[in-house]
Amino acid sequence: MDSLRGFADVFADATIPLFVLGIVVFAAARGVKVYEVFIEGAREGFDTSVRVIPYLVAILVAVGAVRSAGLLDLLSQALAPALALIGVPAETLPMMLMRPLSGAGADGVMIELMKTHGADSVPATTAAVMSGAADTTFYILAVYFGSVGIERVRHALWAGLLGDLVGLLASAWFTQWLVFG
Amino acid sequence: MRPVNRVFVALLVAAIVVALARDLLPARVVERAFPARPPPPTCAAVVAWRAGSLHAAPDASAAVVGALSAGESLRRIGGRSGGEGATTWHEIQRGDLRAFVTADVATCPLDSAVKALTQKMLDAANDAAKLALALVGVLALWTGLMRVAEKAGLVALLARLLRPLLVRLFPEVPADHPAMGAIVMNMAANLLGLGNAATPLGLQAMKHLQDLNPMKKTATNAMALFLALNTTHLTLVPAKTIAVRLEYGSTQATNIVLPTILATACGMLVAVVAAKLLQRRFPLTDPPDGEPAPASSADPQGGA
User: In the list A74, B138, B204, B213, which could disulfide-bond B243, CB 3.0-4.6 Å?
Assistant: First the structure.
């Protein structure tokens, strides 16, 4: 277990530099104009961060209002024993509910958790893993099927949501085991 | 998309109605529904800070010291957001209390629930803009790098590796059909976290899958599986999340990578198995012609 965690730490520390190194060397070797292409892509990142502001305002205000009114605490408290039983921090419940609905919404919940409990706390770390472990199933379903006029989605929604649920639960377990174990 | 709209309206209405109710209903009723929790010891400091008189508030100073000795970490006002630098004894002894704010201002009682709600909503809107702007740099770095990777043919390379697996998962799709090509490219883009590239490729794959579909209004098994794969797709480096964690003062921002990969793999496996098992239970027939078609157009409001 200890050596596994040691590996996890080293792996986690080196991921980004190795990734950057790999991309830049690979691209240069293939004759890509790395600088020009980078600028072009970075501009897209800038646009994305600005475009996300309205979504973020909506979600942060809604989640903040619900939290301030005490509703979220109420719900989390009610479900905490059940969640604790399966090893999921109760604070991440809003994250699990929001993740399939809206990506920006899930970001909002994650940020809220980081602000409240600290970025390296158990709930915030779990939420961060959850944000990568599932996707906006309802949105993808609507866009993908809507684009070709499919009306009967059959089992697609259930398979997707089941995958999300397992991914979210597994996030809590793997975080507990590999990060805080 | 509609569910998001409903959730948004419901959350706002519920929050405002409950906050109003907490202020307007008799205290006895409110206390039964929302049992008052003891405020955190740091609340005195927050209240004094709000009143702008932290220096002149001896009980606030005592509260900060008490909270620290109880192991609570306090956050600073101003400067970087997030937990950078917990308050030190040294600073307390200097009496420099204005530099502190407690972990969660929202849990400290204000005069009324509605006042707290107002404050929280305005703060949240402010935070949203600040957060998005704080992300500009890291996000630009990431999308820039990924564009380089894309131009270098990394997506195509990954696609070559994925093809043998995907040919097996989609037995209904001929291996040399354009649909297979688009599926493979979409999966490769998803794996690299290239959301903006993955969606157009995914839509292209849907178009080609629809060409193979004899029914036109009902999803085929291949379409359903493709959807399930897309909603649970593996991401090798959750770069945006790492950026947000760094911004909020994480010292181990990348330690989420391995758990994320493993958790996603579990979700993906379950989604594939579920799609394969469930496909027999759902009839492969179009709705009858006379049936009014429900609106199925995509609403861009839902995503991002």
Answer: B138
